[in-house]
Amino acid sequence: MTVTIEPIPFFESNYAWLMIDEKSKNAVIVDPGDAKPILQFLKERQISLKAILITHFHSDHINGITELKNIFECKVYAPLKEADKIPDIDQTVHEGDIISLEGIGDVQVIETPGHTLGSICYYISDLKLIFTGDTLFSLGCGRLFEGTPAQMFNSLNKIAALPEDINVYCGHEYTVDNGRFALSVFPNYQPLRNRLENVKQLREQRLPTLPVLLSEEKRTNPFLLAKNITEFTDFRRGKDHFV
Ligand SMILES: [Fe+2]
């Protein structure tokens, strides 16, 4: 089984993640907020789309679904709790569900409310990775549009409890901005300084800062370093007002 994972950047900061089974040239896309760059990539590489995984209902994660479904015979998986806000769903999923994707492996659904109430993550132990949508970002976490700080704190802890050697793929390229805020919280923390330097260099070369190892996030992401809900709430509030 050889699976490659490609970032498809769109809008200002979004990534849709394409998992390609290199043997069959079939693929699965996570959070297609815009169909155009995905269609272009699939056409160039002569890959066909078999499934779409949705982490939450925000338009920059779902707006490409209908166009992709019109072209490919692909199955759309989306969170049960947001089913009324997402078009063209074939199968709703919730905590503990396993989706078996041919050529890719078993995908485990983890409910992670906070950014939205129905947000989910997709964990694939065979590939040692997790798609975290707008829940866990590199060096940050999603804004609390719907959930409480306690909900997000618990959601992040669920992710943090997974094996540390998995790669985190999130929905936005926010790492440098997140890192600037993180450094304001832990100004003298050398691992964080090193990390910020590293991601800045990647961005100067226009390279993605993702994926990132969960172990690295646990070492440097302030929202995973928060000791309790109170501290987490302070950090989240601080980030909301950070310029
Ligand atoms: Fe979002």
Quickly count the helices.
9
Give the cofactors and ligands. fe (ii) ion
CATH architecture: 4-Layer Sandwich
Going by CATH, the homologous superfamily would be Ribonuclease Z/Hydroxyacylglutathione hydrolase-like
Described by the principal axes of the CA atoms, the overall outline is: globular
Rg measurement, Å: 17 Å
Order of helices and strands: EEEHEHHEEEEEEEEHEHHEHHH
Helix content: 25-40%
CATH class descriptor name? Alpha Beta
Beta-sheet strand percentage? 25-35%
Unreliable parts: none
The residue-averaged pLDDT reads 98
Distance between the termini: 45 Å
Strand order of the largest sheet: 1-2-3-4-5-6
| Total E-strand runs | 14
What structural category do the secondary elements indicate?
Answer: alpha/beta
Function: Thiolesterase that catalyzes the hydrolysis of S-D-lactoyl-glutathione to form glutathione and D-lactic acid.
Catalytic activity: an S-(2-hydroxyacyl)glutathione + H2O = a 2-hydroxy carboxylate + glutathione + H(+)
Enzyme class: hydrolase
InterPro entries: Clx_II_MBL, Glyoxalase_II_hydrolase, HAGH_C, Hydroxyacylglutathione_Hdrlase, Metallo-B-lactamas, RibonucZ/Hydroxyglut_hydro
